[in-house]
Amino acid sequence: MAKAFFRLQKFLRRTQFLLFFLTAAYLMAGSLLLLQRTRLVLQQGSRGTSANQVLPVPEEMGRAGITEPRSLRSPRLPLGTEALQEPALDPRHGPHWLVSRNSELRQLRRRWFHRLSGEQEPLQTAGFKARKRTAEHKGTYMGCFTHDSRERTLKGAVFYDLRKMTVAHCQEACAERAYSFAGLAHGAECYCGNTLPAAAAEPEQCSSECRGERGSVCGGVNRLSVYSVEQPRAAARTRRNVIYRGCFRAPENLTDTFPASLIQPNLTVEMCSEFCSKKEFPLAVVRGQECYCGYPTGRFPLREGADGLRCRGSPNASSAAGGQYCLVYQTPVQDTRCTDRKFLTTKSKVFVALSSFPGAGNTWARHLIEHATGYYTGSYYFDGALYNKGFKGEKDHWRSRRTICVKTHESGKTEIEMFDSAILLIRNPYKSLMAEFNRKYAGHLGYATDRNWKSKEWPDFVNSYASWWASHVLEWLKYGKRLLVVHYEELKQSLIPKLKEMVEFLNVTVTEDRLLCVENNRDGSFKRSGAKQKNFEPFTQEMKDLINRYILTVDEALRGRNFSGLPREYVPR
């Protein structure tokens, strides 16, 4: 009995020691993991690497002369090394399948967190600024009104700020466009117009708090909080931009084509534009003393312009003679026939990717697709700047299948084979590299500075990203199941025909008027602004030789898959 008791006691002691050891090991492992995660966040926050950090290159790729692209953003070259390395291409064995950039892309997925944490203001400061703006720009609250996204009353201009919308922000935006009323909905959407909505709603139905201003009401679900805009109309009117669209042949029956008209002796462009703006039409058409307002339609598509001499006046003339031709101007009013968007009501059976190299125009293509189809596009990543500008699919899980297609820059076999089909968007690598470099250093809408272009990061960037441009196309050609290849330059030049191809590939039917609306709003909110150097050439001859080799490789691969080759302007520089 004593012997058995002794064995039990010995076993329990060993068990206690074992439990103590496992607990200590668990705590140590947790501590190491926490330190590692902290170090990773700090490294990502610094947006770079040490000067001598270079990732290893697989042996077989090293023999081919292909450099493994660096995984972190714009690292510096090791001192004493050459800035560029050319790929050795063996014509006997065809193009090499270049290295993918999955390590960089894993960081892109985390960019949402860092961008939010970097841009977020303390709530008290943000609230103070919002109250200050409200105090500087007062307007009368007109009440709560019903809001139908398809039959909007306030449709002069529409924009979103899904993180920092305030009443003052919306009022100021509408005042700059000389509108009389500003309406807010869903806490983040702003609508401008000159006419109050007809149907009033109960005050308590406007209960959504403004995203950027605590305590302020910004509409509700299908409800608008409407404010008057108090600003001198004359001062605001001077800031209204009227854009000359050209001279066009007038339709046979102008009164049937255009819903509003005005006949005025000594009619001027400014008078016609102001009249059409008040009527909230995006086009002002002048023929002699006649003014017509409307939209681009099948009867009047604005595709084939005429010689300006046929309108018997210059674009800057204060009037135009009548006849078979007319002068067309774009008013500040937004064409809202294609701005309504929503998520798919049922999950899509076909999982479609919108794939491109960074800087190839993916955001612009998403803008076109969303406005043409009326459905949101998703994203493999989370970009706060895009979400904040109205791309609501950014925050939806990319595998939800509630979006019409999903943006991705991935180029690995596993990532590609997850999709049933893909629109492969390709852009001239010279333009793509410059666009992505601008985005890295100045965001979606700015330009990198001369200091950025002349730094060591630029040649290293070209060396790394040029191979990525090629490998992205090559691997999608190799592993993609069903592809529609779209060249950015052709989409820009022939918008309607190419957009029709994309929409048909997505199995969506759209009207001609909606496509014309998209063409009228083709630029969206992501056209770069600011000082742009003319005839700027950042590429050295060594860089051109490197890029031209990749261009020829991709062109050969496209033709090998029975696609049309790259546009002639790509090759060679």
TrEMBL record:
Q: What is the organism of origin for this protein?
A: Chloropsis cyanopogon
Alphabetized InterPro entries for the sequence: P-loop_NTPase, Sialate-O-sulfotransferase, Sulfotransferase_dom, WSC_carb-bd
- Write down what this protein is called: WSCD1 protein
> Any idea where the WSC domain is?
138-230, 241-338
The question of whether Oxidoreductase is a record keyword is answered with: no
Pfam families xrefs: Sulfotransfer_1, WSC
Q: Give the record's family classification.
A: Belongs to the WSCD family.
Keywords, sorted A to Z: Repeat
A GO molecular-function annotation: sulfotransferase activity
Q: Which SMART domains match?
A: WSC (SM00321)
Q: Which gene encodes it?
A: Wscd1
